[in-house]
Amino acid sequence: MNEQAQKARAIVTGYHGRPLRIMEVCGTHTHEIFRQGIRSLLPEAITLISGPGCPVCVTPTAYIDEALWLALEQHVTICTFGDLVRVPGTSENLADARSKGAKVQVVYTQLDAEAYAAEHPDEQVTFLSVGFETTTPGACLAVKRAAAAGLTNFSLLMANKTMPAAYLAMADSCDAYLYPGHVCAIAGTSVPESLVKKGISGVVTGFTASELLTALATIITKAQSGHPFFANCYPRVVRPEGSPAAQKLVASLMQPCDCEWRGLGVIPASGMELRPEYATYDARQKFRIPPQQGRPNPACRCGDILRGACTPPDCPLFGKVCTPETPVGACMVSHEGACSAWFQYGGKF
Ligand code: SF4
Question: What domain range is 209 assigned to?
């Protein structure tokens, strides 16, 4: 551990001031804080809350139902990142649909899905497009490439989300955010900086033990002033302007829209949709997907966990009925999910 990290660790472990609630917005932060043993170092005065930063977790049940309808009723080939295959819909998941004969292909990038569509012109191919600022440029690139190639069998089922509105929606749940490093690398720091004027504090951080401890120590130190603050503790990756090229690409193909988040409901202007000129690549419009029920298992508390209203061990199914092998909710399926992290690494109960 370098000298800076040792100093940060001393500040964190030695803190006995007023209680501070710190929300990790990013699911990878949640996992890394557990995995690197940082959670076990925290004094009683620090409470870490897992926020809505896992893209699979915040995708609502109705979205899975839409994908199931496409796969089973329209015989569309679904291309998706692996985690979504096991996320429960209202009555089944995509793995169940695959066992009934539906075509469900796991891909590693959006461009893999576009390439699959190009190689299979006899199939209609829909990519399950979830994620935040980090993954949306890839979806745009896939649509741009499909348009250039004149593909008519490729579309996106969109649930892409953006963070700024969620920061505002969750502001009362914590005293400071650990802002997501990857999102800020794309979007820049102007939003979290501007939130200071609204009384919202936080620091952006990376993923090493040194970076995470430095960020926590910075929050502890700056919170003593009693004034809202922002700091960029990940300057080796995050620049104030973010990635102008990625921002320009997204703005040319997509526009903001209202969007439903699991546990948080519909947050105005928190999602992205394709611009009208690219509507032919929008699976909802292309296939006229009817409204879906979207009923999660009533015993699952993913919604409460994503709001910071409880922790995974508060769920009666946690570790008993619901495990990574037998997930009942999205937060246990995703490798970025809070329930998965708590199950895998334990923690400060
Ligand atoms: S433990 Fe399982 S059932 Fe409980 S909240 Fe987490 S994902 Fe849902």
Answer: 1-298
Ligand 1 centroid from CA 185, angstroms: 31
- Shared domain check, 250 and 308: no
Ligand 1 in reach of 343 Cβ (< 6 A): no
Expressed in angstroms and rounded, the spacing between residue 318 Cα and the centre of ligand 1 is: 6
User: Ligand 1: does its nearest atom lie under 6 Å from the Cβ of 86?
Assistant: no
Ligand 1 neighbour 242 (Cβ under 6 A): no
Q: What is the pLDDT of residues 5-14, one digit of tens each?
A: 899 999 999 9
How many Å lie between the centroid of ligand 1 and the Cα of residue 30?
Answer: 16
302, 320, 321, 335: which to mutate for ligand 1, most atoms within 8 A of CB?
Answer: 302
Between 79-93, 191-205, 325-339, the lowest mean confidence (pLDDT) is in 325-339
Return all residues near 207 (Cβ < 8 A) that are at least 6 apart: 28, 29, 32, 181
Span from the CA of 118 to the centroid of ligand 1 (angstroms)? 38
Phi and psi torsions of 46, nearest 5°: -105, 125
Q: Provide the strand spans (E) within the chain.
A: 20-24, 46-50, 77-80, 104-106, 125-131, 154-160, 176-180, 202-205, 230-232, 254-261, 265-274
The per-residue pLDDT for range 7-39, each reduced to its tens digit, is 999 999 999 999 999 999 888 999 999 999 999
Q: Kindly report the average pLDDT of the chain as a whole number.
A: 94
| Residue 349: per-residue pLDDT | 39
Q: Nearest to residue 34, comparing CAs of 302, 335, 320?
A: 335
Is 332 near ligand 1, meaning CB less than 6 Å away?
yes
- pLDDT score at 335: 81
Whether 314 and 201 map to the same domain: the answer is no
Q: What is the CATH number of the domain that holds 286?
A: 3.40.50.11740
